[in-house]
Structure formats: C-alpha cells, structure tokens
Amino acid sequence: MTPAARLAAAASVLDSIAHSRQPAEVVLKAWSAANRYAGSKDRRAIADRVYKVIRARGRLVWAMGGREDGRALVIGSLSLIDGLPLDDIDLLHSGEGYGPRPLSKQERGRITSAPGELPGWVAAGLPEFVVEDFKITFGDRWSEEAHELMAPRAPIDLRVNLAKTTVAGVEAELVEGGLSPERTPWSAAGLRLSAEPPPNVQALEAFKQGHIEIQDEGSQVACWLTGVAPGMTVVDYCAGGGGKTLGLAMLGQPVAPRAATAEVEAAPVATWSPVGGDGQGAAPKPKARPVVEMGIRLFAYDVVQKRLDNIRPRLARAGVAADLRLLGQNGGGVEDLVRQADVVLVDAPCSGSGTWRRRPEDAWRLKPAEVERLHALQVQILGRAAELVKPGGRLVFVTCSMLRGENEATADAFEENHPEFAPVPVAEALTGANLTDAARERLGVLAEGGHRLRLSPASTGTDGFFAAVYERTA
Predict the structure, then answer these.
(1) Which of the ends of the chain has fewer CB neighbours closer than 10 A, N or C?
(2) CA 286 from chain center: how many Å?
(3) How far is Cα 50 from Cα 73, in angstroms, rounded to an integer?
(4) What is the largest CA-CA distance in the chain?
(5) Cα(192)–Cα(159) distance, integer angstroms
C-alpha cells in the first residue's frame, strides 16, 4: 500500500470505530481480515495512525473546527502530530489510486490557521465533562493525571502463577525467549513487558503452561488487599473476565490436584434466579461447598453465563479451581452464602476510565448519564454483596475507574446505608505476602491513613483503580 492509501484506510477504520461499541483493536482486526492485500507493515502503519488519532482526538476535533469524521482527524494528525507542512499533506491527498481525495478549501484553512489557546480539556486530552471530576480529585495535578492516562501506551503486565512456578523462573524463561521483563514495583508476583514492540503473550510457552496471566499490576494489588488466606470462604461477586478470580484462587493454596481440576471443568454451573430454579422447573437450593478440596472455598459469580464459561479453561490452565455460579439479575442464587464469607471482593461494573491508556476510544464514548447509571448500579450491587460477609469478615469494593462520580460517590453511599461495616485502614490490608515492601510504603502514603486507595498511571504506573476496604462489625 502507498502512504496515501494507508491514510485512507486509517480514516475508514476511524469511522468504523466511531459507529461501533467494539474495541479499536477488534475493529482493526476485522478490517485486516477483510483486506488481506494489506501486508504486516501496512497493518502496523494503519494501526499506529488510528491510535495516534484516538489519543489526540479532542485536540484534533478542536483543530478541525468540530469535525469528527475519520478523514478530518487524519488530516489534522498530519499537521498537529506529524508536523507536516501543507505541501506534503497536499501530496498525500492527490486523489490518485486508493489515496484520499484532494483537500478542500476549508481543510486547507483549518491546518494553516493558528490554533489559538486551547481549552483545558482539549490540552489535557480528556472528554470535557470529566475535567471537573479530575480537578476535584487531583487538584493541581489533574492535567498530569490526565496526560498519563490518555497519552502514553500502557505496558503489558503479567501475573506469575505462584501455584505452579516462581517469578524468577518465569523471568528467566522470558529472557531466554528474547524478551526483557522487569519486576513490578508493588506486586511481588508481577512482571512487566514493554508494549513496543507488542509481545504476543498468548503464544508464549509460559502462557500455554499456565505460568502467567495478563493482569495489570493495579488489578493484582486489588487481589492482595483482600487478605485471603487458606481456610477461608471467599466470594468474587462480579467475576467478569476472571482475572481476579484466578488471582484469588492462587492465594488459596494448596492447589487443587489435576484430577480434581478436571472435575471442576466438567461440573455444571448452578443457574439461579430470584424466584429460585433455572426458569425451567424447580431446583434444589445449592449448598455452599467447594467443588474440589483446596485451601480456600472460592465462589465466583457473574450475571452472564458466557463470562463464566470463558473462565473455565483459564482455571484449568492455571491448575486452580473455583465454584462458578450464575447470579440472578436481581441478586438471586447466593442465599446459601449469606453471612458465610470471610472475604467478598466486589469488582463493580464501571466506566473503565482507569484503562483509557489501553482503550482510549472508550473515553470518547462515555457520557455523563452513563456515569450516573453506573454509580446507581454499583450502590445496588455493593449492598447485595455485603449480605454475604460474615461478622468479622472483609468486604473490598474495587473499580477500574478514575471518576469520583463512581468511586467516592459509591463508597459514601454505602457507608451511609451500612453502619454495620467499619472502614479498615489500607495500611492494615497491606500485609499480604504478594505485596512488596515498596508497596506497603508507597500505597500506605497514598491512602493517607484511610480505608480508600487510588492507583493511577501518574501516581503508581498502573491502570487507574479505586479500592475501599471494610469489615462487618455486626
């Protein structure tokens, strides 16, 4: 493909992303599958252009007079990001072959006019409506936090499966494979790989053998805050993709034997609704018991069966086990665990704004009404999950959001409505063996002696996470 044809393709992909809810990565893969003539260098160049544009979208829309179409954004990127003069941009828009059509008079005017002073939200690269939230949360540091969240490409964090191997062993294996892993500063079970060039982690033998999982260090830290130890009954209330389920299972050594793990794979998932049964007739109430003999009794719930199904092969590969259960839309299916759990982790549905450095397209899809909806849902879910915690047990509320309208707002509402839960200082939760000494010092400082903790790309080099820790006292 010619450079001009690559630009036209990038503009087309950007338009597809704008009209889709799919991640940019998925849209790019679909384009590649439909245009097999594009070589690997072409695909890489197109993807690089697409992500450059998405990360700078606010500034490019502003520069192009409010236009949001892929063509305008690509033209703006050539000027503002690449620094090309008008003559060079003209040459790339000759209209020949598969290249984009010639520039219009208006487009020429936009890329040659002085940009003027940028509004704060444009300069920071954030959607306008979240700026006030950032200013309240981070004060004078808000623009730094915004830049680190939106501009740099995130590294690839791995969690070493200590149920099967050691960090040193995996580190040596990756080095032998030509990679350059680094130890993560906060999680003692973590290794970090550069995103440039992007490694194909799932093709690594260490991944196939269940020695590693892709998991951001912030997500690992959230697992270690739970204080899970052998002998406990543990609930992952919103299992989702299963990353934290696997992390919790690793904490519950001894590990399930191979034969027992196979039994877990074959075991049916109990399906429950608020009225009981699976909608196809009466069913007996499930009993709270581990599927296999292991160090902890781990139950993972989700409202989507497909998500639970996707966790099964990951558990098998890791050599650990969990009792996977479908949660009723109104919270049914947990009756046997009410006040039985030593630990309940609630990784609540959220905007995912803490992961915008990985999926910057999501920043421009988020609307204020969605944040309000998610906050209300979090309050509802957290209240239901709290019913499972036994007296003296721990409840950990987690989101991968940077927004106060979800995090602090939800924690405030929970604390007002649930006086039977007392805050647990984060410093008391930083005792797990999988946290480094540096984590105990740095994260303790960030928590400021309280029970809430914020992680962010700027402050901890992780994705954005929020955690609040509680203990049932009555």
Answers:
(1) C
(2) 31
(3) 9
(4) 75
(5) 9
Query: Residue 158 has which token pair?
Result: 């791995």
| Contact indicator for 325, 267 with CB cutoff of 8 Å | no
Percent of the chain at pLDDT > 90 equals 82
Determine the average pLDDT of the residues in 40-52. 94
C-alpha angle 237-241-243 in degrees, rounded to nearest 5? 80
Task: State the number of CA atoms in the 13 A half-sphere of 206 facing the CB.
Answer: 28
Q: Report the b/e string of 30-56 with b at 16+ CB within 10 A.
A: ebbeeeeebeeebbebbbebbbbbbbb
* Residue recorded with tokens 């033998």: 205
Q: What is the sign of the dihedral through the CA atoms of 398, 402, 407 and 408?
A: positive
Cβ atoms < 10 Å from Cβ of 243: 22
pLDDT class of 253 with cuts at 50, 70, 90: low
Burial 432-464 (b: 16+ CB within 10 A, else e): bebbbeebbebbbeebeeebbbbbbbbbbbbbb
* φ and ψ of 374, to 5 deg: -65, -40
Beta bridge partners of residue 271, listed in sequence order = 326
Place of tokens 């990784």: 347
* Angle at 72 (CA atoms; ends 69, 76), nearest 5 degrees: 135
Q: Which of 387, 351, 391 is nearest to 371 (CA)?
A: 351
What is the C-alpha to C-alpha distance for residues 246 and 227, in angstroms, rounded to an integer? 15
Asked whether the predicted pLDDT for residue 444 surpasses 50, the reply is: yes
The amino acid occupying position 292 is: V
The band of 440, judged by pLDDT with boundaries at 50, 70 and 90, is very high
β partners of residue 209: none
H/E stretch holding 11 reads helix 3-18
pLDDT (tens digit per residue) in 13-29: 999 999 999 999 999 99
Pairing of strands 323-326, 297-302: parallel
**Angstrom distances, CA of residue 287 to CA of 248, 322, 326, 383, 454:** 21, 14, 14, 22, 37
Contact (CB, 8 A) for 402 and 464: yes
Q: Nearest to residue 248, comparing CAs of 328, 189, 167?
A: 189
CA 372 from centre of chain: 20
Chain Cα centroid distance, residue 110? 36
CA distance to 279, 309, 464, per residue, from 150 (Å): 45, 33, 11
Q: How far apart are CA 378 and CA 350, in angstroms?
A: 8
Residue with tokens 């650990």: 320
The set of residues, in sequence order, having a beta carbon less than 8 Å from that of 359 and lying 6+ positions away, is: 23, 24, 352
- DSSP assignment, residue 388? T
Q: What is the CA radius of gyration of the chain?
A: 24
